[in-house]
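Q: what does this look like with HQG bound?
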Amino acid sequence: TQGKQIEKFSKFLSLVLRHAPETIGLTLDGSGWANVDELISLANAHGQALSRALVEEIVETSDKKRFALSADRSRIRANQGHSVEVDLGLEAKEPPDILFHGTADRFLASILSTGVNSQSRQHVHLSSSVEVARSVGARHGRPVILVVDAKGMQRDGHRFHLSENGVWLTSAVPPRYMRTL
Ligand code: HQG
């Protein structure tokens, strides 16, 4: 179905725009942008029937607004979630007093001892909503919600950024700033 196609190509875009552009020979610029025409022709050359119409539809319909087009629509990038090193150019921003991180119960002991680390990604992902945090955690197993003292972290010099699609990003959350919900 149409929806399944969109989901398949959305995952493909996440792969090449966040993690492994080299799988199709794509290069991202320092801010994470790829040329849309180049992306489409490289995808086509690698057996992916991506088209301009599909790209535009994915950008517009993505539930999480994962991708953004440049103003002239010639370039595309992922709004967050990168493991490749890019500078999204996000300003530091004052976070709400508390933020939430959703994880799986099997990670809890490790997180409580070493903190939330960004693992393969550039940042730890935090949410202002418990529901969103729960669904992020559920991707990994039985969800557990951590309440993060974002205000305290900021006071102590940790920096926060808000992605274009509403995800709060920071480098790491040390154990002393968190408790389970
Ligand atoms: C865990 C989705 C053990 C961490 C979502 C998480 C998000 C530790 C996992 C975005 C740990 C990494 C990111 C430690 C962290 N010991 N486990 N010390 N520190 N972890 O996928 O936050 O749908 O890289 O809790 O909406 O789950 O892809 O991060 O469970 O915004 O657009 O290690 O991905 O967006 O997992 O998800 P991930 P995440 P998309």
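Residues 14, 64, 66, 81, 103-104, 107, 110-111, 114, 116-117, 119-121, 125, 136, 139-140, 167 surround HQG (CB under 6 Å). The domain at 98-180 is CATH 3.20.170.30 (ADP-ribosylation fold).
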